[in-house]
Amino acid sequence: MDDTVLKFPNEIYDKALEEVVSKQLNLSKGEYEIKFKEGSSKGDNYNGIIYRVEIIKNEEVKLSIIVKLPPDNPARREEFLIHKSFFQEADFYDNIYPMYKKFQEDKGIDVQKDGFFQVPVCYKTLPDDPHEGLFFEDLKVTGFSMFDRKRDLTKDHIFLVIEALAKMHATYFSIKDQKPELVEKYKDIEDYILKQCRRKEAAMKIFNEKMKNQALDVLKYCKNEELVKRVREVLSPELHLLLEEGNDVQAAEPYAILCHGDCWMNNVMYQYDENGIPKTCILLDHTIMRTKSLRDKYYNEFMSVYFDKLSSFMQRLGSDPAIVFPRDIFESHLKKFGKFGLAMAIILVPMVTSDADDAPEIDDVADAFKDNKDQSGDVMNFTTAKTLKVYEQRMMGIFEDMYNYGYI
């Protein structure tokens, strides 16, 4: 997509845009011009096509909207569960976040000032297959920007995300504690990657084994024989079995909650102060610790900040963290579900460290999954000679930390 695009692929989206403009600006069709721009770069969003739409009146941009639409490619829609993805995201903005917001307000919390507010304004959702869509505020207009995933994060960036996640989790914990009927229907949500593994067993087995073998190859640089032995033991089962184990909701109860599930740098935007220090963040697309040297210095502090913020916010919401989610349970869950984190890293680190210009064409990847094609070729190679060193450093750092912290 480029700036020459003059319209949406379907009139359903034109009608939805008219409704958004009417509600936000009180303007009718014909009273404004529409300008389409590219909303994202290659590799930024695998599950959707992003438009930036400007509403112009008297040569002035009155409103800028980010529109996320599903891909047209049938294989991509089917293989990446596009409808399920859009439906769940629409449910978050239509139902889950409004529930969180009301619960906080009922407790006397000024949500925008010091509650869990770190989500973009969603003007409209279209959850119906096959014309799904999401219409958001354009955060760039208010000074937010995406962090360059090729750079190293600072502790300030990480603290902001950790605090946002802590408040998000505390809100769910408190609702589950005080009004469990409100969240009962969410306890059986099926994990996206696990659903893929189950429905496309043959293709996912090939893909997962490819990713696992690539990760294990990094161990050739490791001098710690005990670490190497332990990693190979943990990864001896098929990768999807580790994912199943880590997603065992019953094993997590009574402490299971809804999590973001895709909190990496392309799904976080930051707003900075005059000194270039990040002052707030917004979580998109409902990990972050990419640099081992940063984890070496601050990991324990990160965990303490998370749990302290979780506990204090839970108390403000009227629940007792010592009962709802005690510190010893938090620590034990880090170890109990650590293998899941490792399995996810093996799948995602190649994508996170890939160069956008060299990343596989997502439609080709979808076709490979659909036809159970041989995935040993370039179609599934996220790691190239240009990014291999970064990948190896990142993956080795994860192996070392997982081992040293006792998570595997």
Automatic annotation (TrEMBL):
Coiled coil: none annotated. InterPro entries: CHK_kinase-like, EcKL, Kinase-like_dom_sf. It holds the Pfam family EcKL. Residues 134-316 form the CHK kinase-like domain. This is CHK kinase-like domain-containing protein.
